[in-house]
Amino acid sequence: MPVPIIFGVIAGGAAIYGAIKGVSGAIDHSNAKNINTEAQSTVDEANHKVEEQRKTTFNALEKYGKRKLSAFESVIADFLKSYKKLNNVEINQTHELDKLGIGDFSSQSLTGLSNDYQALQDAGLGLGAGLGGGAALAFGAYNGTMLLATAGTGTAISSLSGVAATNATLAWLGGGTLAAGGGGMALGTMVLGGIVAGPALAIFGHILGNKGEEALNNARSNMEQALSIRAAATLTVSKLQAIEKITSLASQTFQQITIQLRHSTDALTEVIETYGNDYRTFNQASQETVHRAVKFAQLAKAMIDTPILDKNGNMILATQKRIEELQAVITA
């Protein structure tokens, strides 16, 4: 075979190979683009689900916090005002409250409830004063002991908003991102689930300059990241739903208790107006009115001292059982 023909065959083969590689590269780029689009959609959907549940959980905690603060400003304040007028009160601890470990009301719960109320008053924190910076969120998530320990000084209350700002979970619940550089869902997942999604799909949109095969490999890597992020998001949503559920249960239970406390306080006020301040002179029905008011004040205090989250922002698993125990004695 003449040499020129041989070179011609080789050149023709190279051209065909090049054409095949070019077509293959174009197909790889097209497939990479489709995979990247699907991966991005997967991440966007995961972020959306987490964000929607974050808002729902935040609203539940904030609503519960406002409900507790509202009770301090109204029915708890009214109860304390009436109860402190009484003299020579003798309260026999009931078996149902004894079982809950609430303790003697006159020496423990009443003092604690009074201190909580006084701390709120001293700091000027209430619904009328406005609740900014996560105060209602923190008050919904934590208990009175954690937030109102420095009674009479206002120190604990002055940092109440800061609790939400410095606690990673509450900061994320309140704003959707963490103060330390943002991060959205990935950091929220890190906080709630111990999973770090990492810089989500950092090479999205950067495939055109790559060779077809390289672009396809990068796109597949993106899809793996997207699936990991979706799994992390699912975990985060489930944890947020659990927090929302227990918070809603707590809020409903607290509302039931404060309704009963309102009725009992009104009845107590009427007893004092009718029979005076000396408990020893009350007839049995009037003494039972005092006992009933005390019972629901104790239950309110017990709810205030039952946190939803711990200091690290993790849901306290024992809280649901505690609330169910308190529910059981509301109508007893």
Task: Provide a descriptive summary of the structure in words.
This protein is mostly helical. The chain has one domain. Helices cover 72% and strands 0% of the residues. The protein is built from 12 helices and no strands. α1 crosses α4, α3 packs across α11 and α9 crosses α10. About 16% of the residues have low confidence.
Describe the secondary structure blueprint for this structure.
Elements: H1 3-83, H2 95-100, H3 105-123, H4 135-141, H5 144-147, H6 155-158, H7 160-166, H8 168-175, H9 185-193, H10 212-275, H11 284-304, H12 319-328
Concise description?
With 332 residues, the protein is an all-alpha fold.
- Tell me the number of helical segments per DSSP (H or I, 4 or more residues long): 12
| Oligomeric category | single chain
Percentage of β-strand residues: under 5%
* Structure classification: mainly alpha
Instruction: Give the domain tally.
Output: 1
Shape: rod-shaped
Q: State the end-to-end distance.
A: 108 Å
Radius of gyration: 31 Å
Largest sheet: none
Record field, number of beta strands: 0
Taking pLDDT < 50 over at least 5 consecutive residues as the criterion, the unreliable ranges are: 5-22, 150-157, 178-190, 193-207
Q: Summarize model confidence as the mean pLDDT.
A: 75
H-E string: HHHHHHHHHHHH
As a percent range, the share of helical residues equals over 70%
